[in-house]
Structures are given as C-alpha cells and as structure tokens.
Amino acid sequence: MIRFGPSGNSESFYKEGHKSSVEMPAWLCEKGLDAYEYQCNRGVNISKDMAQKIGEEAQKSNIFLSIHAPYYINMASPEEEKRINSKRYIIECMTVAKWMGARRIVVHTGSYSKVDKKWALETSARLFDEVLREADNLGLGSIMICPEVLGKNNQIGSLEEIIGICKANERLSPTIDFAHIHAREQGSLNSAEDFERVINTLENSLGVERVRELHCHFSRVEFTKGGEKKHWNIDDTQFGPEFEYLAEVILKKGMKPVIICESRANMAEDALKLKKIYNQIAKGMQNEKSTCD
Question: Which end of the chain, N or C, is less surrounded by CB atoms within 10 Å?
Fold first, then answer.
C-alpha cells in the first residue's frame, strides 16, 4: 500500500506540548499518516534506548520508518579522511536503523564541485560497495541504502547519476525527490507525462519490481539557475511541482511507494494534504472506470 508521512517533526507537534520523537508514531497514526522519516541530518546523535523506543511505538502504530543520514556526507570528497568519515556516518546511521526497526536510510552522496565528475561517480560507487560489505560484517545487511536525487547542479544527484549508482549495486535503491528533479531541471515537472517520464526512466533502468515500492520525497520548491533554493509548503502554489500529476502516475502504474513530505515546518500537515489528493484522484479514477464498465 502507498504510505505518507513527514520528514522530521512538524512545528505543531511541539506546539501541542509534545517533546520527544518517541511520541511521533502515535501522533502520526492519530492524524491518519503511516510513515515517518527520522532526521539524523545534522548528526547521528540518538541512543540505542531512544531508537528502540521509537521503533516499538512505530510498530504499535503501523508506522513505516526510514532515517535521513547526515547532510555533510560526501563520498567523493578530495580528502580521504572525509571519505572515510562519510562511510562511518552511513554505518552509524544503519546501526540506528537496526535498533529502530527502520528499513531504509536516505543518503546524500556528495558533491563534485572540487573534483572531476567521472572520478566522483566512480569513487562514490566504490565506497557504497565498501559500506555494504562492512554492513554485512556488522549484521546490518537488511538495511537498504537509498541515495537521493539532489537539487543543486554541483551535487552528485541527477536522476541519471543516481540511477547509475544504484544500477551498479542492486542493494542500493534510489530516493526520488521530485522537488529536486524539478529544481535541477529548471521546472521540468508540469504534467502527468513529465512524472511518467521519470518513472519510465527508472523502470527501464532498474526494473519494474525494483521501482514499485519507491522511496519518494515531495514538496514544492523554489529554484535558481544553480538548482534548488528553498523548499515550500503545499499551499505555496506559486511554486511547483503539483502532486496531482504524480498521484495519477502512481495509480496508473499500480505502485506502492513511500511518500515523505519535506515541506517547511508543516510536513505532517502537508503529508495529509498529499494523501487527500491521492485519495480524491483514486476515487475519481475508480468512478470513471465504473462508468465505463
């Protein structure tokens, strides 16, 4: 089934008096959501006890868990120490995922602003292989690493680059951030056909089954010539892309993705708006089919 949830904790969670992410799974369940991407984007700073408690609450509330790894990972840094540290951060994040019962970790591969692009891609792919071998030795082989499509032109993260990295190792699965694609390609997602082009590209490269349960990020986005500038909320309609088009493609193809909303401050509220849009389109398509029958 398709799942919806936020990246991190909405401001409203704290305004309602909640203080700990342990309370998030039940809070999300009450609102009608069923996914949660725990944020380690500024560092892996959670205890085993806390991670296990979040995992227990998520299991009770049927919340699908994923974790976002630190933003400062750079698998293609020209400095060897930073590459070694990047591998360590991923392993630390996978360890937390194991404690928590999370199935996926989302990773920013890095940047080629200071290195040759070909070297950056080859080095990143090699380091991911090394991480997976180390993960196996540590009993972390069940955790899926999901390199993310990124929104800035100097980042390792175009759709084609992430497909290439994942194609090299079937144990890697992409995180498709549609806001990032829209920003990086200067506003390219403006119809259901545009979104279907993205999904078809993925299916043709990685296979239909591998793409069926895709990990996705969605929000509106502001961009410049350099790509992504700022994520916005679903009600900020001066920015794209439109979720209706993606919902149509998901339904047409019978996909069962996880949709993580990355709106600013209101990610849980906006995840619910995305779910409502999806359900409305699903109902409309069902009614249309019934009429045709």
Answer: C
149: nearest Cα among 130, 125, 173, 119:
173
pLDDT greater than 90 at residue 226: yes
* CA 249 vs CA 102, 126, 244: distances in Å: 27, 33, 9
Sheet holding 175-177, edge to edge: 3-6, 258-261, 215-218, 175-177
Cα(205)–Cα(164) distance, integer angstroms:
9
Report pLDDT digits (tens) over 163-204.
999 999 999 999 999 999 999 999 999 999 999 999 999 999
37 phi, psi to nearest 5 deg:
-105, 105
Of 74, 42, 218, 71, which is closest to residue 156 (Cα–Cα)?
74
The pTM score is 0.96
Q: What is the chain's alpha carbon radius of gyration, rounded to the nearest angstrom?
A: 19
